[in-house]
Amino acid sequence: MTRPHFSAAEYQQRLSAVRREMGRRGLDVLLLSAPENIFYLTGLDHWGYFAPHLLMVPAEGEMTLVTRAMEKVTVANQVATARFEGHSDHETVADGFARALTTSRRPRPESIGIESWSAGLPHGLALLLQTRAPFARWSNASGLVDDIRQVKSPAEQAYLREAARLSDAGAAAAIEAARAGASERHIAAESERAMIEAGGTFPGFGPFVRSTARLGEEHTSWSDTRLADGDALFLELTGCAARYHAPLGRLIHIGRAPKEAYEMAAVSRAAFEAVLGALRDGVLARDVYAAWQSVVDRAGLAHYRRHHCGYLVGIGFPPSWTGGNTVTGLRHDSDRAIRTGMSFHVLSWLMGTGRGDFFISNAVLLTESGAEVLTRTPSEVTIR
Q1: Range of 12's domain?
Q2: Are strands 137-140 and 111-114 parallel, antiparallel or unpaired?
Q3: Is the pLDDT score of 105 beyond 90?
């Protein structure tokens, strides 16, 4: 048995919280398919999620984890909170679900919830599942577990701090490698090497490493491009500890930086500090964004808007560190209440302003004492 990331008591507390919400919604069974939510309740940490998984959570009694039969050893080594139901490769996870229902000693469920918006639940599979239990009422339970896991326990917070240490190690290696003549590929490799050797595991996203010609690309990474004097280099990366992420981002200048970079850096850092000041228990996400935007407006950039100034982070599996296939952002239109124990990737992004470029981002944890910046990589204008 692999040593679990969390204590049996913590897993039981999580399951109890899920079951309380199931009771509020009148669900007899909850079917989880999002890797992050399955991990949250079982600790299953592997790459096998490319094939659909189902965690059957009954209102009472033992959970059942349905996967390909070949995952039996991994599940036996990692999972102590659920029994295993394997299906052969000529079957689907729906067949395993049907067997689990048949062998269960519990009454047939009258109400079943599924994660309709999970990337782990293809449309065809969702339809097939419902044919295996036509006697039940099916409903969308997307977000049920996601909302519960937004507030991090002390044990989770410890992993976030470890992930931040790894992020700083990766950023330091990337910055050290960034110089005229170095390739984006080499910089990415050095970053990954440093985080792995420091004790990290694979993150939800690989590092984003882009130079001047591709600064505006949101989700692409390294190429064979070599840096030249005067280039800017975009770095955004995260360490990963026990599936917990603490992203950071920096803009690095090669050889020299234009004076506009210093002007935008001052605005970016002031706006970041405004977010930290606004992050308090009970405030709304839109008010946090407003604090960021007000600094930008006062700097004469009232035309500049971003879709958010950060988002919640924590558990993540490829292809994302955002915690699933959605982004829970600090947006101008979000009425989500901020709670102590939430963790964020806070971004103060001023790119394409017409007056210069700069951005910083850090992992931030809201504690009883206020917003704590977990990542420590220097945020001033950096020239290599």
Answers
A1: 8-148
A2: parallel
A3: no
